Amino acid sequence: KTPIRDVLKEGQPIIVQVSKGPIGTKGARVTSHVSLPGRFVVYMPTVDHIGISKRIGNDRERKRLRDVIDTVKPPHGGLIVRSVAAGLTKGALKADIGYLVRTWEGIAERQKTAKRGTPQALYSELDIVLRTARDMLTEEVDKIIIDDDDEYARLKEFVEVFMPERAHAVEHYTGSDPIFDEFGLEDEIARSLSRKVPLPSGGYLIIDQAEALTAIDVNTGRFTGKGKDVEETIFQTNVEAAKEISYQLRFRNIGGLIVLDFIDMERSGHREKTYKALVQHLRADKAKTTVVRISELGLVEMTRKRTRESLGRTLYEPCFYCDGTGHLQSKTTIGHEILRQIRREKDSLPGFKVVVNAHPAVVDAMQREQKEALAKASARYARQIVLTPRKDYHLEQFDLAGG
Predict the structure, then answer these.
(1) What is the DSSP string of 51-93?
(2) Is residue 216 a contact partner of residue 257, using CB atoms and an 8 Å limit?
(3) Is 284 helix (H, G, I), strand (E, B) or coil?
(4) Which DSSP category does 298 fall into?
(5) CA 81, CA 41: separation in Å to the nearest integer?
(6) Is residue 221 within 8 Å of residue 199, measured between CB atoms?
(7) Computed from CA positions of residues 337, 340, 342, 345, in that sequence, does the dihedral angle turn out positive or negative?
(8) Is 283 exposed, middle or buried (0-12, 13-18, 19+ CB in 10 A)?
(9) What is the pLDDT of residue 117?
(10) Of the N and C termini of the chain, which has fewer Cβ atoms inside 10 Å?
(11) Do residues 170 and 144 lie in contact, with contact meaning Cβ atoms separated by under 8 Å?
(12) Strand partners, 81
């Protein structure tokens, strides 16, 4: 409730961290509560707090980790123990904490020598190559395969320093085919960006991302069952969809408000089981999710924490032709608009002709479908109407000139 002008003064230097990158039309979010993520812990130099990841569910292990952290925590700041730290020794945690404390001390030193009045970067998060090793190289991952010589050497060195026990998991790809072809990544990327996602039973998902929310619709697809089998097959499709939805949210990095439209189920027991299946699969998601139970309409409202752009927004950009709407006016609609524009401008155009410059497809449609309307307009205004196709015009673009 304290006014910010009473806390900060103009020209005062302050360290802030970008906690959330710019997404769509929203700018970046910054905070003065810095957090430095490591392999096993997150160090918060400005907050005095000790926390254990909620994903570590074993009470005995949580207590053990808290006791270990109490003996190795730095004099200042707080720590959050990440889920991958379960079962770790005191030495491994102490090494990770020491690295993060040294990193913070380096940031503080750079701040002292920073040029006054000029914003500048004091610390940058690891790039995607090293961040992949730090966050993804868990026990469930066998290896990371990389084809670039320089990046391989850099990644190998990083893993040998911070995860020496997993150094063998970094593999250099030297095949003659592109690495994307060797492992079928092009097909996987195309699948990840497709609006339609197939399910094993023959059903499918339709994923639509809008500015305010993401809508995911579940459909039965090829199923044509009758009688008692209908409800059971709908339930089976919804359970399959719950698993695939949780995977797609992670894979596409979809965040914000998400509405899931499951196929309507008559039995409340099936609705409850579908909800529990969704919650169970979402536990594998590192991003925080909140799920509301299935409504009578078969809808599930949920949120997923969003920290960076989704995969689709990263790899795609809005269509310059339709401005991202996915729709264009029909050629017939544009033709009618041209006729109305002729009526508006007929008296202001010089000469005895009205020259219409438009896209060739629009000109062709008008000559075929609106031939009679053009003749009537020409007779009514006592002006010859000449249609001129222009290949360099946008489909919806046209202009009029006298002649």
Answers:
(1) EE-TT---HHHHHHHHHHHHHH--SSSEEEE-GGGTT--HHHH
(2) no
(3) coil
(4) S
(5) 4
(6) yes
(7) negative
(8) exposed
(9) 73
(10) N
(11) yes
(12) 41, 52
**Cα 249 from Cα 304, distance rounded (Å):** 8
Cα separation, 320 vs 360, whole angstroms: 19
pLDDT average per 10 residues of sequence, the chain (403 residues): 84 86 80 88 90 85 88 89 84 86 88 80 87 82 92 92 86 91 86 86 89 89 63 88 92 91 87 92 87 85 83 80 84 93 90 93 94 92 93 94 86
Strand-strand pairing, 256-261 and 213-219? parallel
The tokens of 89 are what?
A: 């020794």
> Which residue is listed with tokens 């790809």?
173
Query: Residue 322's CB: how many other CB atoms inside 10 A?
Result: 14
Q: Which two tokens stand for residue 166?
A: 């997993």
| Helices 268-282 & 229-252 angle (0-180, nearest 10) | 20
Q: If you search the block for the tokens 């008559």, which residue do you land on?
A: 266
Structure tokens at 117: 């009045």
Cβ-based burial of 323 (10 A; exposed 0-12, middle 13-18, buried ≥19) = exposed
Q: How far apart (Å, rounded) are the C-alpha atoms in residues 230 and 60? A: 46
Q: How would you classify the pairing of strands 353-358 and 204-209?
A: unpaired
**Structure tokens given for 33:** 């509560």
